[in-house]
Amino acid sequence: MFMGEYAHNIDKKGRIIIPAKLREELGDHVIITRGLDGCLAVYTKEQWETIYEQLMKLPSTKKDARMFVRMMTSKAAECEIDAQGRVLIPSPLVKLAELVKECMVIGAANHVEIWSRERWEPVDEEANDAFEDIAESLTEFMI
């Protein structure tokens, strides 16, 4: 389970520190791909295999399904977490998520997300403002 919110800078080479608490569960090699809402999603290799299996079940006869599979797999990259706890994010993904300097590394239950601070703050603010309404609308799915 991934949780927590951590502020880290990305360097000019595209490296960002993955917090130790998250690294323990991620392992040494991760898959980074396009996430939803403008972030990057970081998965363990095992999680990625499960996602890949689900992607392969989508109907190839549907244009939306083909596009989604393309966007998830074409943007995916296997990355290594180095001895300093940094991961080198491929430049197309850095550009896609608009990662410039200040970033947020977010534990998102079954995966980790990397956000530019500029993108994260309005999302966080909106979710905080609507938290109780969202919770009430989802009570049927909660224990």
UniProtKB/TrEMBL annotation:
HAMAP family given for it?
MraZ (MF_01008)
| Main location as per UniProt | cytoplasm
Known Pfam families for this protein?
MraZ
InterPro entries for this protein: MraZ, MraZ_C, MraZ_dom, MraZ_N, MraZ_sf, SpoVT-AbrB_dom, SpoVT-AbrB_sf
Chain's gene name: mraZ
Assembly behavior: Forms oligomers.
- What GO CC annotations are associated with the protein? cytoplasm; nucleoid
Q: Where is the SpoVT-AbrB domain?
A: 5-47, 76-119
Q: Into which family does the record put it?
A: Belongs to the MraZ family.
Q: Which UniProt keywords apply?
A: Cytoplasm, DNA-binding, Repeat, Transcription, Transcription regulation
One GO term in the molecular function aspect is:
DNA-binding transcription factor activity
Annotated compartments: Cytoplasm, Nucleoid
**Name recorded for this polypeptide:** Transcriptional regulator MraZ
- Give the record's GO biological process terms: negative regulation of DNA-templated transcription initiation
